[in-house]
Amino acid sequence: MAHSLSPECTPLKHAYDSCFNSWFEGYLEPAIANSQKLSEGQRNEYAKKKAEEFEQNCGGVWRKYKECVQKALKDRGLDELLEQARQDNPLRTPPSSGRSP
Fold first, then answer.
1. Cα 93 versus chain centre, distance
2. How far are the Cα atoms of 24, 68, 83, 91, 96 from residue 30, in angstroms, in the given order?
3. What pLDDT, on the 0 to 100 scale, is given for residue 100?
4. CB atoms inside a 10 Å sphere around CB 18
5. Could you tell me the pTM of the whole model?
6. Residue 12 φ/ψ region, left for φ over 0, alpha for ψ in the -120 to 50 degree band, beta for the rest
7. What is the pLDDT of residues 7-42, one digit of tens each?
8. Rounded to 5, what percent of the chain is helix, strand, coil?
């Protein structure tokens, strides 16, 4: 696994990466296997359940890691550069898929 921006964040990064990878594997395999068998409502319910599972299992470590990285950015004076980049090149909303929600 790669290191984080700051050495003190690396253990949190590794913990989060491990948690996310485990969760994502458990999310993706059944989702792909059952994608043709489930209705859109069932798929939405499955996604909601897995989002709750992610929050319960990985949400806390994600927030700690994010906080650590944000502090490291600020300590290095990169937070202002990052904000300027976001203003210069804002993320755009993806185009609509044409399906109704």
1. 17
2. 10, 33, 38, 31, 26
3. 46
4. 13
5. 0.75
6. alpha
7. 999 999 999 999 999 999 888 877 677 667 878 888
8. 75, 0, 25
